Automatic annotation (TrEMBL):
Pfam families: 2Fe-2S_thioredx. PROSITE patterns: COMPLEX1_24K (PS01099). This is Formate dehydrogenase subunit gamma. Gene3D superfamilies: Glutaredoxin, NADH-quinone oxidoreductase subunit E. NCBIfam families: PRK05988.1 (NF004638). Belongs to the complex I 24 kDa subunit family. Its cofactor is [2Fe-2S] cluster. It comes from Plantactinospora endophytica. Coiled coil: none annotated. Keywords: 2Fe-2S, Iron, Iron-sulfur, Metal-binding.
Amino acid sequence: MASPDPSVTDRVRALVAAHRGDRGALLPILHRIQAEFGYVDSDVVPVLATELNISRADVHGVVTFYTDFRAEPAGRTVVKLCRAEACQSVGAEQLVAYAERTLGVKVGQTTPDGSVTLEQVFCLGNCALGPAGQIDERVHGRLTPARLDALVTKAVDA
């Protein structure tokens, strides 16, 4: 396993120091790492384990358990499609299948050109307007394949 860049290691240590006395510090630290770097690189796992005096397995377990954490950078545009029951009842599964076909990736993957990452979520709080999705930070309701295409194209071209 390669060692992370020294500047990354220093930044991770600084984030740990900012939360050192906090109970349950790992989650807020991981959120800050992802916010700053865009993902939680596997190379920072041993640094976090050492700094927090926990096992690498504990850190890895948290990173892989929570779907909000990424192990690699996301695409320039992130498309999250809701798969909760209310959205399922109005066509979410068909919309996910359509998105996978048109983007050429499965949920959890990024297009080869790095333009779009397709993700799933299990409720955006937009249940009355399903199927719902989130493109970058904006929630959209009543998505159809055509509307999804238009919104993704607009986001990618922005």
